Amino acid sequence: MKKILELTDVSAGYDQELVLTHVNFSVYEHDFIGIIGPNGGGKTTLVKLILKMIKPAAGKIEYFNSDKPVQIGYLPQVSSTDRDFPISVLEVVLSGLMSVKGSRHYTNADKKLALRVLEMLGIADLAKRSIGKLSGGQLQRVYLGRAIVAQPELLILDEPNTFVDNQFERDLYELLKVLNNDMAILMVSHDVGTITSYIKTIACVNRNLHYHPSNIITQSQLNAYNCPIQLITHGHVPHTVLGIHHHNLPNE
Amino acid sequence: MNKGIFELLQYDFFTNALWASVLASISCGIAGSYIVARRMVFVSGGITHASFGGIGIAWFLGFNPVLGAAVFSILTALGIEFFTSRTKIREDSAIGIWWSLGMALGIIFIFITPGYAPNLMSYLFGSILTVSHGDLWMMAALSAVLAFVFLRFYHLILFISFDEAYARSHKAPVSTFKYLLIGLVALTIVLNIRVAGIILVISFLTIPPSIANLFTHNMLKVMVGAIVTGLAGSVAGLLASYYLNIPSGATIIFAFVLMFALAKVVQRAIIYFQMRARVRAGN
After folding, report:
1. Residues of chain A with C-beta less than 8 angstroms from the C-beta of B216
2. Which of residues 39 through 58 in chain A touch B, CB cutoff 8 A?
3. Rounded to an integer, what distance in angstroms lies between the CA atom of residue A38 and that of residue A142?
4. Same domain? A112 vs A28
């Protein structure tokens, strides 16, 4: 399998305070990794490192290009965007092509590509609408469209289930399964229960990173990884009941 | 006593004022749409008032006040941008500091300059009727630069403005464009101070795009709409100020606000009738 990127002994943080220390982590094509860990444990910092939004304090991050630079699609956790901003759904999706297009003009072919992505997401009829007139779930779909329109090698989703409606959540996971044929996926989540039947492997992040090469994880394994998160299960997913829910988890 | 509009056109000062309206509408329409979309009205107010410091210093040193205002406002614009992104000073606080510093410097330097400052009122309130050919050429050049930058880099500017963090993660030249555009905004403000004055120029930048924004959410259409409404409002204000013999800058602003109120009513009416049509179709 082709390696997409590798972090070697990476430490990183903000204002002299390290959030992540000595992290080793690789992503291969067709990976579908759930990134779990407590709040403040460094999940988002890891994502920012991979997206080159921050630089590591130590260690190195390598990207294995084939013929062009590694493309990474990104669905942010909370979008700080302004809902009143004069921009249409189609334009937001087109903005996912920014790193490919640079300052060049967007062509009809680009617009057709963006429309195809909207069709795939089931919102082609909203293409011309301004984003201020969308529901939260629709907006989340538009941002997913922006993340995948450039056909990236790697797609990163930061807590995609935080703000979405149930319908979109189910659609999203089915869609991710299909997308996973073409791209590796990293999905950050604080709630391992909902995602475990979709992901292939797990990375526990809490200052360090422990890679768990399976989608089934037990409470004792989490404790061994120093990853104090609560295992919660939802709905009709009996094969993903993982462990007993404790109110006061031992913090090792 | 009052002359007809065709007789008025024979006067140089009046054709100059008309050209100034056209060029102010173009530059303010483009830059203003950007300001309104990015919610930068307060920053622009800060830059506008800080430029008074440049006018005062230029007055004291015997330079062209417009040049002083240009230098000072660009420094202010870059200063606000720099302090907010590089230090922990909050943006609105930084704006408050520059805003008052500029006004204070302007007052001090004009006070210590010997003699009376006769044109001071025209910088505060604008005087579209005394715009010179030199002013017009500078405004034309600015309009051309703005039109070029915004048409050539339309999508990049749109995407960076919409979601800066996302643009950064895509290695877009976010900082370069932010500094370039805030610099152009500063120049737009300074060159239009001749027309509308420090106190009123902000309405040239904000009211026309806000009117256009009522009817469209496409950035390019907002810009075109702002230029058209800006032109209509400033010509209407100009004529009204002549026939009623009241100050031109203030009359133009009043025309803008009237147009905004009218547009708001029309917009509500359109929504109301669309809703009613939809309800009827449903029955």
Report:
1. 86
2. 51-53
3. 28
4. no
Same domain for A144 and A186, yes or no, is no
Number of domains in chain A: 2
- Distance CA(A151)–CA(A183), nearest Å, equals 8
Q: Residue A252, exposed/middle/buried by CB under 10 A (0-12, 13-18, 19+)?
A: exposed
Its ipTM equals 0.83
Q: Which domain covers residue A220, as residue numbers?
A: 1-70+153-165+180-252
Contacts of B211 in chain A (CB under 8 A): none
Q: How far is CA A223 from CA A152, A228, A229, B34, B135, in A?
A: 34, 6, 9, 52, 73
Summarize pLDDT for A142-190 with one digit per residue, the tens.
Answer: 999 999 999 999 999 988 766 566 777 777 888 888 899 999 999 988 7
Q: How many domains does chain B have?
A: 1
Q: Which residue segment(s) compose the domain that B18 sits in?
A: 5-282
Is the CB of A81 less than 8 angstroms away from the CB of B39?
A: no
**Residue A173 placed within a domain:** no
Q: Does A87 contact B171 at a Cβ distance shorter than 8 Å?
A: no
Distance CA A212, CA A5 (A): 18
DSSP assignment, residue A69?
P
CB contact at 8 A, B225 and B37? no
The model carries a pTM of 0.84
CATH code: domain of residue B24 = 1.10.3470.10
For residues A134 and A190, membership in a common domain is answered with: no
